[in-house]
């Protein structure tokens, strides 16, 4: 099986769009670099990072995707809102992966400030591009494991 013979879903938050759009570009570029054609990628947008797990769950339950990439950005502010949003997104995304038995890649930036978010979305590295490689690797690994354990 070719490395990129998979279908990938991407859930991206619109909140902090200047950051998340860069993550999305990086993810799509990364998938293309691994030979995945655009037709094998489905992108859905949600309002914010807290809403990512529900959309990821629907995609995972559809059984149409070999892996799902979750892209978002939560920047720490002066209130505890950061803790609730970042924690809810992280635990929800992890739960989806385990319950649905589909690799769900956590690429939600949780940063102290906008500068760190910019660094991780393209200035120094792109977490979306890394997530693309992880999604393909995990999709292929799970396929191989299931064949070997069947």
Instruction: Please bin the fraction of helical residues.
Output: 40-55%
Instruction: Give the overall silhouette.
Output: globular
CATH architecture: 3-Layer(aba) Sandwich
Order of strands, main sheet, comes to: 2-1-3-4
Q: Radius of gyration from the CA trace?
A: 15 Å
- Sheet with the most strands? 4 strands, parallel
> What is the CATH fold-level name?
Rossmann fold
SSE pattern: EHEHEHEHH
Q: State the CATH superfamily name.
A: Lumazine/riboflavin synthase
Distance between the termini: 18 Å
CATH class: Alpha Beta
Annotation field: number of helices:
5
Descriptive notes:
- The protein contains five helices and four strands, in the order βαβαβαβαα.
- It has a four-stranded parallel β-sheet, with helices on both faces.
- The protein is globular.
- The two termini are 18 Å apart.
- Helix 1 packs across helix 5 and helix 2 (52-61) packs parallel to helix 3.
- The mean pLDDT is 94.
- It has 150 residues and is an alpha/beta fold.
- The protein has one domain (8-149): Lumazine/riboflavin synthase (Rossmann fold), CATH 3.40.50.960.
Q: Quick gist of this model?
A:
This protein has helices at 17-33, 52-61, 81-100, 114-120, 127-149; strands at residues 8-13, 41-46, 67-75, 104-111. It is an alpha/beta fold and 150 residues long.
Defining traits:
single chain; 150 residues; alpha/beta; Rossmann fold; four-stranded parallel beta sheet; 5 helices; globular
